[in-house]
Specification:
The chain is of the alpha+beta class. It is built from 3 helices and 3 strands; from the N terminus they run E-H-E-H-E-H.
């Protein structure tokens, strides 16, 4: 039987969600993703809250936060010293 899952972090967009899904599956980390998309409101909640969120066992929280931090840091454009 699976233990309780907790909310680990929010997801900013579909690309981040797909990348995290792929990485977590590859590493065998148990998780669930919940999208905030609602067809009745045509995605209004995703616009306000982000794409969705990740849930996982509490003991995997820090590992997942480390992974998402790496994913987000790779998304940022390089900083240039030139003004």
């Amino acid at each position: 039987m699976m233990g309780a899952y907790i909310r680990v972090t929010g997801l900013e967009n579909i690309v981040e969600a797909q990348l995290m899904e792929s990485i977590l599956q590859e590493k065998g980390i148990p998780h669930r993703m919940r999208s905030f998309h609602d067809t009745a409101y045509d995605g209004l909640f995703q616009f306000q809250k982000g794409w969705g969120e990740i849930f996982a066992p509490p003991e995997r929280k820090q590992e997942i936060l480390g992974i998402i931090e790496l994913v987000r840091s790779e998304d940022e454009p390089p900083v240039s010293d030139k003004a």
